[in-house]
Amino acid sequence: MRIAAMLSLSTLLSACALPGERFCTLEARASVQVNVVDPRGNAVRDARVTFTRDGSAEQQALCNGSEQAQGNCDTWVTGYEQPGEYVITATSADGQRTARQSVSVGEDECHVQSQTVTLTLPD
After folding, report:
1. Which of 71, 84, 67, 79 is nearest to 36 (CA)?
2. Per-position pLDDT tens, the chain of length 123
3. Are 64 and 33 in contact (CB under 8 A)?
4. N or C, which end of the chain is more exposed by having fewer CB within 10 Å?
5. CA distance to 3, 9, 35, 69, per residue, from 77 (Å)
6. Roughly how many angstroms between the first and final C-alpha of the chain, as a whole number?
7. Predicted TM-score (pTM) of this structure
8. Measured distance CA(36)–CA(86) in Å, rounded
């Protein structure tokens, strides 16, 4: 028990920075993670998800953890480490239903402040 406590304490202390120092991780954080559901809360895995950032041209979101833009997705991402004003749009596979939401992504010294958006496609 005493060894576990000492290991935990040493791990915490090694992660602390001195005043004025910053330690950033090398991970890339998603700017926005997007979930698409139906009115009952079931995932709509074949939706088409697009976004604009700061008024730029519309882009397709990527299936999280994949290189594909569409298909069998649980979540989508709008890219990594890009702060800004996003407009996220989800469209059903048949193109008949659409949901849209705006979200602001900020950043700190190291990473974007990731946002999660859930869009509900109407029946």
Report:
1. 71
2. 444 434 343 444 444 445 566 688 888 999 999 999 999 999 999 999 999 999 999 999 998 866 555 668 989 999 999 999 999 999 999 999 999 999 999 999 999 999 999 999 999
3. yes
4. N
5. 41, 36, 9, 9
6. 56
7. 0.76
8. 16
